[in-house]
């Protein structure tokens, strides 16, 4: 919130109105962005560099959003992480494109990473605790755990990457019903929704 307030004097709006407006957007924006069954993918093909950034509610990938404490839950998290660590297979990149992973980074509270806004969320714990889950919601106040995967590939023959095929993502994580994709490639920028029955996107 503080960062938003710093920017407000530059917006030519009365401060109180702008503040109320930002608060409203902030709350609804963050809730809208985290929707079970829906993931987000940014895909950029620039010359020989392909960059993919996947964000998904943990529910879509592992079936829950609390920190794994049981052996079964830990196994699910480890299995999902292993799948995410093999992006060439997960994103079905054609062998003809000759893509190799140059960098990859996975982040999630479920992987033991500290959530970015951990302390800011503490105030919300009581709000979440009133949603019928009682103490459990209070105990695991990361109700909205995300999994974030960021990959960069160098592709020897980028012309072979005419399509991005997400069929394997939907097969691997069947709780994912839709992926909102922002695609930037040689033919420009486009926003597309991919589903299990419409998995192929043209660059």
Structure report:
It contains nine helices and eight strands. It is of the alpha+beta class and 203 residues long. The chain folds into two domains: 1-33; 36-202, no CATH class. The strands form two sheets. The protein has a six-stranded mixed β-sheet. The protein is globular, with a radius of gyration of 19 Å. Keywords: Signal. Residues 127-144 have a biased composition (Basic and acidic residues). Residues 108-144 are annotated as: Disordered.
The number of domains: 2
- What is the percent of helical residues? 25-40%
Strand order, main sheet: write it out.
3-4-2-1-6-7
General shape = globular
**What about the largest sheet?**
6 strands, mixed
Q: What is the mean predicted local confidence, pLDDT?
A: 80
Distance between the termini: 36 Å
Parts with pLDDT < 50 across at least 5 consecutive residues: 1-32, 118-142
Strand content: 25-35%
- How many helices? The count is 9
What is the CA-atom radius of gyration, in angstroms? 19 Å
SSE-based structural type: alpha+beta
How many beta-strand segments? 8
Counting copies of identical and different chains, the oligomeric state is single chain
Order of helices and strands: HHEEHHHEHHHEEHEEE
